[in-house]
Amino acid sequence: MPFTVGFVLAMAFVVAQAQQMNISRGSSLTPTTNSSWLSRSGVYAFGFYKQGNGYAVGIFLAGIPQTTIVWTAKRDDSPLPTNVTLDFTSDGFSLKPTPGQSFVIEYTSGSSASMLDSGNFVIYNARQDIVWQSFEHPTDTLLPGQILFAEDELFSAKSESDHSTGIFRLKMQADGNLVQYPVNTPDIAQYAYYSSGTDGRGMNVTLNFGADGHLYLLNDTRSNIRNITNGGLPADQATIYLMRIDADGIFRLYSHDLNHKGSRSMVWESSNDKCDPKGVCGLNSYCVLLDLEAECRCLPGFVSANPRNKTSGCSRNLVADGCEHKNETLTHTMEELESTWEDISYVDLTLSDKEACKRACLEDCNCEAALFDDTSCRKQRLPLRYGRRQVNTSNIALIKLCFALAAFGSILFAISVVLLCKHNVWAYKRVNTPIRDSELNEDIALQPYTYEELEKITNNFTEEVGRGASGTVYKGVILASQKPVAVMLEGTVEIPIPPSPNSILSTI
Question: What is the CATH number of domain 5-136?
Fold first, then answer.
């Protein structure tokens, strides 16, 4: 299929910026002028690309509007300034002035280099033998013709715009299994969230990528032991395929249509459940799938460490550790979550009663949570990780909430405001002064509610219906009248509390 006129013109413009295809020693690049070396067709480029507040060096699709990085050199280094030069010398590729570190692509006796049309950047010796190639050092992406060898891994990027190493990995294991894990975990089934199911099917198994989008596993006898994708897609000059483990932990097959400005389409993905990758939500938070998107929620009694970054996890907003407050009067409660977590228990009790499990944790000041599954009660210390909500499951997480009470002292506690819904429209109002009966949509009087009563009204705050500037709104029902209400948990304020675990919190 021929290129469109628009694409040809775009390529001509880029080629005019960097005409080189065979790169000799002594050649150099800078971020702002002569910034890349192109492949013969102009589809791929090796050189500087924009990264954060500076630049990085890598391989990318050239001549298309959407920035698409397929390989990055020294991906975890700080962004480079505009005044650097990348030199091709007899010692390697080096940066000058060097900002505190060397930049060398390791090879021996390199005399020339080339950016190939396959997307592979290669270095040759004097006999034109390849002594180094980017295809043998993948980061997060594979291209057609590229192989992931046994024991090799791909690591996700941190985000679409930050190509440094992220928190997920895809490994071609020596046992023949292609498996996905979070980073910094052992290669065992407990931490896997995707597997090709081909362990024991041969030695030196490799992941291979055909020009038609075919991803498949070959064993050491070159026998196909598993098709990851079926292939059979158009294989022409106007379509570029790539496979990437994305920042969200799922690996996908993409196509880029060069006839339409490189527009990208997702062809296949290892999972359509974005809560599958373990670690997509940070410590002490759990993943909830809403409209096919992953939402991270904090454990009860915790707040997000960074609301703009869901992998940052959550930290306590109340007493941190009951064992550190032995001289104070403590009140404890256990909140239930239908969820699964990594099991890091320090005690495993044989209990078939959930209430007994709660008591066992409440009586142990070291116990901060417990995992209960109808047959056992596993006491946990924090932090909890790899959490996700599981509805209608026997797995229940029991989270300890601790409140320190002192006579006529103070405690930070959330104030809950309950408003009725009229005409089936959920609404909430932040209240800083008492509300007169006439100001309510329905004719009822204000009354105090305990926290436990609000839990019952909202069914443990399970159905979130909105967010305000300072709090979360939950759906609830007044049990006596069955009237619908909206309950908003707002911020924290300091209120005097008498030394009694049954103290009443009034709406204000």
Answer: 2.90.10.10
